[in-house]
Amino acid sequence: MFLLLSLCLCGLLLRGDAQDRAALWKGNDRGGRCQYTFSVPSPVEASCPQTGGPEVEGLKTRLNLLEVLVSRLTGGQTGGPQGTGAKAQAELQEALNRAVGERNLLRGEKERLEKELEGLQRRMEDMRRETEKLRNKPCPPQTPMVPPSTPLQDSGLMRPAGGSSVMSHLINRPNKQGDSSSLRDSAWQYGPPGFQEMKAEVTEVPAPDSSEDYTGCGVLVSVAEPVTHKKADNIAGKYGVWMQDPEAVPPYGSNMIWRIDTVGSNIRQLFGYEDMDQLSKGFPSKVLLLPESVESTGATLYRGSLYYQRRLSRTLIRYDLASESIAARRDLPHANFHGQAPYSWGGYTDIDLAVDEQGLWAVYSTNKAKGAIVISQLNPHSLEVKKSWETNIRKNSVANSFIICGKLYTVASYTASNTTINYMYDTESSQGKAIAIPFRNKHRYNSMIDYNPSQRKLFAWDNFHIVSYNIRLGRQQAN
Ligand code: CA
Question: Which CATH number fits domain 201-474: 2.130.10.10, 2.40.128.630, 3.40.50.150, 1.10.150.910?
Answer without folding.
Answer: 2.40.128.630
